[in-house]
Amino acid sequence: HYLVVVTLIVSMPQWRCLGALVAALGKPAQCFEMAPKSMVVAKRLVSIHSSPDSCNYARYISVCSNHWCGSRGSAAALAAFVGLVPENDPCRLRQVDCLGACEKGPNALISDGSGTVYEINAISGMPKIMSVLEDLMGMDIDPASVACLEHNLLGNLHLQKNEVTLAIDRYDKALQLGVRAQEGVLRSMRSTAYLARALSHRSAAEKLLGRPLEPEGRDSDEFWQSDGSEEMYLAILMELSTLLFSNPHTPHFSIMIANYTTERISTYRKIRFRVSLYRKTLRRSIEDSLRAYELLPHLWTNPSRAAEALCALSKFEEASECFRAAAEAAEKAEVKDQLLAQAMLADEEALKRNEYCAIVPS
Length: 362
Description:
Layout (H helix, E strand, L loop, with lengths): L27 H4 L10 E4 L6 H4 L3 E6 L2 H5 L2 H11 L7 E5 L11 E5 L4 E4 L5 H11 L6 H18 L3 H13 L3 H30 L11 H4 L4 H18 L5 H44 L5 H12 L3 H14 L3 H27 L3
Helix pairs in contact: 6-7, 6-8, 7-8, 8-11, 10-11, 11-12, 12-13, 13-14
């Protein structure tokens, strides 16, 4: 539910079809093996491809988006092209329908601007993509962009395997490279990883509690950030139990009380630690999601993810604003309706919380 897949395509202002790459990072292992660089094997076509959209651009890269090429990683290949093509290059990036070489996919048509089109087959790795851009298109690719993209792809692979810590480490390394064109995607993916980590902390806390966490009441933010009065109470019990236990004439039930109190204090501290990590990681996910939304304002999944995390922190008014921002960015009517419905639910929860706070003294 929370693994939202995004692609580098959204950072390019000339690209308008976001839906084409929604699954771009779904199978990174099949799409980007880190093999030694090799020259592109291209089939030279006599004339410009018949696609009317492609004909309008002297330089373009058109990647097949049909089922067979898609299953072999065509969307991820297109995402890589978008992440590496310099922003000042007039090259047009787009998806096209079947190119008629399904058994050789993923396939692409490349025009270097000279009037000749090349058919490239089996674009299955970064080395080949780099060869297309540098050898055929004559582009000067920033090494930092390449390293950033590789960290991103490896991070996505770790995230797909639920190796959240390794994924976050890759995204951190990629962001440290300072490639602004890829920051929005990296922030979005890291926020997804943080959300996955937060859920693992919540699961651990609920396992210790023996019940689900409740955002209000006994599991409210105020309770778990309290001054530790319950822990102090348990400590006093522990002292009394220790005194009883030190007496050789201590009844058996006193020993049981001492053991129980020791275990209770340990469990309480573990729960409080996990809840603290849960809330801290949620805040990190929100921060990354909102930053990604600033950089990629047309991608509704980022404010939506932030809204869900805000709801988990009982910040319903802020969550409602994020849901509405997501609805404004969404293109499909059914998605807009769902997001607006979630915004209304958040408004209702905010109203209930305000009424509760007005009745219950602080």
